[in-house]
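batch_manifest entry 22 of 60
target: Isocitrate dehydrogenase
source organism: Montanilutibacter psychrotolerans
requested by: lab member K.T.
priority: normal
notes from requester: please return tokens only, no post-processing; we will run our own comparison against the previous entry in this batch. if the run fails, retry once and flag.
--- input ---
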Amino acid sequence: MTQTITVIRGDGIGPEIMDATLHVLDVMDVGLQYEFADAGLVALEKHGELLPAATMDSIRRNRIALKSPLTTPVGEGFSSINVELRKRFDLYANVRPAKSFPNTKSRFGSGVDLITVRENTEGAYSAEGQALSEDGETATSITRTTRRGSERIVRYAFDLARRTGRKKVTVVHKANILKSTSGLYLRTARAVAAEYPDIECNEMIVDNTCMQLVMRPEQFDIIVTTNLFGDIISDLCAGLVGGLGLAPGANIGTDAAIFEAVHGTAPDIAGQGKANPCALLLGAAQMLDHLGQTEKAERLRAAIIATLEAKDSLTADLGGTGNTMSFAKAIASRV
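--- output ---
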């Protein structure tokens, strides 16, 4: 069966890592057809807008998108193209795995295997009620948390634990201080957790979570938290396993899902073949999981690990002398 997905090649190093990723997917013969769409600077230059209607229609029609990093121009357009996509398609669950990989420059060579599930549509990133006083001395913004938003993200985390055989969910909050917003989230999380007696649940204040992550990350399995905390924690976790070059992300909603590399566009190395394609390849593996092709997703992850172990054609950030496409071809040869 053939599945059509929307492909956004992105800005900066985006086209290079996307070409590398599609090469591997084609070798795997996963039954995907690609509908290419523009967003970011490329779209602004070609169509005069950052998110053209045709791109939105493509995502809405195909319901699955694979996206390279995008640039949001400073001083115009949306506060963030990624945030705007999450809002428009109600992509409420941001799912960020962090797993130890061999031969990477990281604090923990092994033992890290966790997933951060971040609420993606509410909280500080909703940009609601932003205002600056006339004298420029005071800025305000509304942080809104709802029971519905809290319930569905926590339920997603527990369902993910059941589906993937994970045993523990850590609910991260700041309800000791933020008694209204974080308090509502925590109370809702407790109610949801009670429906999953087969999954261990513990609660942890966000600052302690950060300390525990850098001391004993092996104690975590799935972390579920609110938008701002999840943004910070997921990048911290990427730092534990070698950085954003190995950090994929999935943005999941009821009617659409977008899979991506979470790093930036790195314009300083664009077009030079220096970019590491692993983050987008791992995002593609998340996409295959979402499409029910779990066996092929695991094959892709195993091929990445085997290539890292063999130190075959690795890019410079991983200590090798290969380039973006040679690295991808080495992975494809093992898949």
